[in-house]
Amino acid sequence: MLEKHLWRDFVGVTSSVAVLGVGVGSTLPLTALVLTARGLGPEVVGWMTAATAAGGVISTLASPAATLRFGRRFVMLFCVAVAAASVISLQYVDSLWGWGTLRAVFGASMAPLFVIGEAWINSLPGDAVRGRVVAIYTTSFTLCQVLGPLLTDALTNLPQHAFLICGAVFLLGLPGIALARDATPTAGTATPNGTRARNGASVGDKDAAASWWTILRTAPTIVAGAALFAAFDNIVLSFLPLFALDRAFRPSGALAAVVVVFIGDATLQFAAGWLADRFGHARVHRLGGLALCVLLPLMPWMIVVPGLWELYLFLLGGVAGSVYTLSMVSSGERFSGAALLRASGLIALTWSLASSVGAAATGIVMQHFGSSAMTAVLFIMAIGFVLSSRTERPAAI
Known about the structure:
This protein is 77% helix and 2% strand. By secondary structure, it is mainly α. It has a two-stranded antiparallel ribbon.
């Protein structure tokens, strides 16, 4: 699927970002469980998650310029080190203000990793196989993210070292980044019909310059899909355990629910990429949003049916993950070079904003209306995605 000389970059970047998935998948639920054990409600958990996302907003804005100035590899190595330090520091800080600050630093360090990593991977394949190549990348990340809640479950027995171990996990992502060959992205543009220009060359309509406004105007599902899955990812990691605990699940069972969601996400992404390559990315993308609109309202009823509950979570994770995977695929088809980096930056900025607003809103509504309100937030966002897909320009994907 890739030319031989590109596999080194693909393996290096994919393996590193996948390892980061373990850290992310363990840190968020661990934070929620520790705060809950201290007697704090879901609203506080929501604000902590929002602080993480807010940090990501700030760093996302600076990511393209920093990458062009210092190179992809240097920026990613630096961010991994900062992420590890911020998580380890949680072990030694008690105040909520201190935690909020460290969570913001953590978010600021993670956002550039995904901006650069996704743009790097998206620049490697041709359009005919892009869905499958990107799916391998997202699957690798999610498979490792599945290990996060399992690590969290083990770390509940080691409260004095939990965040120290979580932080050390991030350092395992350094070797893969060092392996990948560094290069500075070149300028690029995209046209409404999906053709691309590299190294600043002009192709087609001048209005197709890949500004953030152009991306929003011509391909809103890229942004809406990223927003939907960002909210889903953070809400599931932070609040699904609380949703399950509220229904008499034990902590291990509550964390297992998160694991099943991300197993579904990891397992079904290649299938989604194959379907998209075969039947059209726009069509499969929209069907994923419609499926979420059907599945999400069923959650309060499914949780009381053993066996069906696990199958439900598996499908829910797979469908939600496909929405994000195909947003990445769409951006890779339309943009290249620095323009692709800018598009990935917009996806990451959307991720941070949606994570922040989604987590804060979920914490507030759960505090006042009960844990079932979690699904209402996600359902509203799924409806928004479907509506955005109806306004997509015919050639946007």
